[in-house]
TrEMBL record, chain A:
The keyword Oxidoreductase applies. The gene is glcD. Belongs to the FAD-binding oxidoreductase/transferase type 4 family. It comes from Pullulanibacillus camelliae. This is Glycolate oxidase subunit GlcD. InterPro entries: FAD-bd_oxidored_4_C, FAD-bd_PCMH, FAD-bd_PCMH-like_sf, FAD-bd_PCMH_sub2, FAD-linked_Oxase-like_C, FAD-linked_OxidoTrans_Type4, GlcD, Oxid_FAD_bind_N.
UniProtKB/TrEMBL annotation, chain B:
Its cofactor is [4Fe-4S] cluster. It comes from the Bacteria. Binds 2 [4Fe-4S] clusters. Keywords: 4Fe-4S, Electron transport, Iron, Iron-sulfur, Metal-binding, Repeat, Transport. InterPro entries: 4Fe4S_Fe-S-bd, 4Fe4S_Fe_S_CS, Cys_rich_dom, Glc_ox_4Fe-4S, Helical_ferredxn. Component of a complex that catalyzes the oxidation of glycolate to glyoxylate. Its EC number is 1.1.99.14. It catalyses: (R)-lactate + A = pyruvate + AH2; glycolate + A = glyoxylate + AH2. Residues 18-49, 72-95 form the 4Fe-4S ferredoxin-type domain. One of its GO terms (molecular function) is metal ion binding. This is Glycolate oxidase iron-sulfur subunit. Pfam families: CCG (PF02754), Fer4_8 (PF13183). The keyword Cell membrane does not apply.
Amino acid sequence: MSVSAVKERLIAALGSDYVHDSHEMRLVYSYDATPGMQAMPDLVVMPGSTEEVQAIVRICNETKTPIVARGSGTNLSGGTCPVEAGVVLTFQRMNQIVELDEENLTLTVQPGVITQEIIEYVEAKELFYPPDPSSMKISTIGGNISENSGGLRGLKYGVTRDYVLGLTAVLANGEVIKTGGKLAKDVAGYDLTRLLVGSEGTLGIITEAILKLIPLPETKQTVLAIYEDIDKAAQSVSAIIANKIIPTTMEFLDQATIKVVEDYAHVGLPTDAGAVLLIEQDGAPEVVARDMEAITKLCTEMGATSVKRAGSEEEANALRSARRAALSACARLKPTTILEDATVPRSKIAEMVRAINEITAKYQLDICTFGHAGDGNLHPTFLTDARNKAEMHRVEQAFEEIFAKAIELGGTITGEHGVGAMKAPYLEWKIGESGIQVMRAIKTALDPNNILNPGKLFFEKKEVVS
Amino acid sequence: MTREAVKEKERTAIQKAFQESLDEDELMNCMRCGFCLPACPTYLETKSEAASPRGRIALMKAVYDGKMLPDDDVQAQLDLCLGCRACEPVCPSGVKYGHLLEQARGAVTRNKKQSLKEKAVRRLAFKDLFPNKKRMRQVSGLIRLYQKSGLQKLAEGTGAIKLLPEGMRNMQHILPPVVSARLMKHRPEQLKHVVPHYQVSVSKGQRQYDLQAATVEQEHMASTQASSPVKRVAFFAGCLMDTMFLTTNDATMKLLQMAGCDVVNPQTQACCGALHGHSGELAGARDLAKRNIQAFEDLQVDAIVTNAGGCGAFLVDYDHLLKDEPEWAERAKAFVEKIKDISVVLLESGFLDKVQLSLPSQKVTFQDSCHLRNVMKTSEAPRTLLKAIEGVEYHELKEAGVCCGSAGIYNLLQEEMANQLIDRKMRHVQAIQPQTIVTANPGCLLQMKLGITRAGLEDQMQAVHLADFLLEAAEAGRGS
């Protein structure tokens, strides 16, 4: 069926205000935050309810039109880029916090709510929603759930998956499925909630979510440990965890990252340091004090030149915000920043950092490395220029080696950014052929026409017809 | 040629101008992280990616790359941008969006066939009116005549006012009373610093900085004896400020004198050129920039003081404006380094130690001037001054850094969005219910007055310029 016929049907379902096909609108929904990824959709639709999402999906399924669900477009793996054209479905009209249930400690939300809005809303009631991806000021909860986003607090509190109790989703056939509920326990059949979380919009379109909340920790302390070289910082991370301390946050920045971040944020980071660790602990005051004392001692023993405590919550917040800006700040040096989030077991973090530096030197590249050291999740970010084809090729080669190394160390190709289109060729490296078969079987069962975010997760070798 | 063909030709010409004048590196520097989205007023209102800085840069880049023509939608989106530049301080990559916007608007302006009406308005505003002080005085004089002769009352009373379009109708209602042409014409050129002639009472109960009182007194003694000024500064008067808002300019100079500054007000200075620049009239802006650099460069001053964020932000960008003219680039740089807002210069000169500020007890809030905050990077100084006034209970306004919708002449051209933004602003104001909203730029001041009128709050609150408010506080403080 032609695009204009699909458009007419969508207009009949949603009204003409919420179906767009202007060149302008198609262009601004042709990208996300992934470097070098851009593909034009045919249409942009803005549903206002689960029922409207159903109507859209039915039309698309009948006409075999691809649908890409999109929040704020902060995705870093090309997950929200409409690589096979079709319809981009946005959630700016479905952006309400539906219900706070203080008896069950749950929050029911629509997918278009901004993550930070959720965090601020519940914290005002002394409750806590821990997942805090760096893009939380912009990202939507629907996007976080679909990507199973991590964040700075993942070390102690886990990731988005650990805070999703139930979902309402529209399947490819237009049917609505409700999974889980306001339940602490629920083993009725397969855990479809967990299947949908992190499925990158390929199995269903999430239209409502029940989130788990926990009590807001009483206090929090923040320190900045400064090192002359990267190795000692990485060793400190392993030492802290080996000593059975799980800090809320343990973020790592290498010298190149410290410099760009300080250039942007002016928060007083030591630009001559080889690396810093931003470490936070929260909880009861006596526990926090005890842990921080032990952490400070361990860092010093491991060779930190100083361990400074943030004097106020404002100062701590400035440090956290500065860390969250790290990736974008890298673009101050060179226009194209290509980052990955290979993840290794925590004990291997020092080895991984060394390998990254060796690979970088081998391919003569500029790199900024930062990330969630406590999670074994680093973001090596190559600084390059998309216009320099030769260098772009070396970047690709370097990343392949980094992926290989991560897997060799028992790690994964992506810790929190998702496979999307960018890492689809490498998924098999991690999960093997049998893993791919299982995933494909699930995909085919739920979306036989392959209309939900096609071109993601699975790598299709294009046949060359000469 | 058909109409469509003419349009097509025009769009191709605009695209070519994009390719010639847009900074490719700057376009590439946007890595599309989206950190700018929550800072953009038009995105906050529309939630549309197209109305965000990231979206607008993507559109500019698509035109630049030849992927799309600058069609009506693209042009409308460039027009909808307020140019408030709130996206710049929040951009970790340091993309200079304001420059890209100006380049893109310039490319459109130079190649778009303007309607006769638009041509006439542009000619009037950019060639005949703003660059010409005499004409500015004449127009202001007409407004004064309108206000003084009873015509305004008559127009409002008889309903004849309704014949004007809404934007103009609102404007005429909120314009400040204009002073006489004689006063506008005879401006002071040199002003000496003054010594505050009141004694600071150490025992005064409510004084916030009792600890400093002794030093204040010592300094007062010292300054009575010393005849040299703390600073020698030049005053950038501005075209609108020096006519329509002349009393605010007088207040600004008085405050500088009280802070111990000698003030020079060179009469050869011109309009800053911001209105030209923001509307894509870059050649006109460059001429004015050169006139101003010449007017100020030999004065041997420590600072050039502005009291309008909109002007200041354009003045600090002269080095960028003239970067391609080698004989001017260095001179522009020297000029730019001296530009400072009145609030910053007052604090640097020790104003708070010299002058006691006091007003009847009231709740006060501050609406940032976007360009003062985002381009001149001045946001704390005005707040510090306000908080130092005895009797002022300062409340921070939610989204104080979000544009009020004034944005130069935006509120006349994009009335719908401007009204949405001022109404949003007034909802936050209502949450505080201040007696006074302080601003730091004439456009913001008028827009806040408009907001108060639209919300029907004229009886409950006023909007004032920081300089007028501080002078009132200084004079009241002197009397106490």
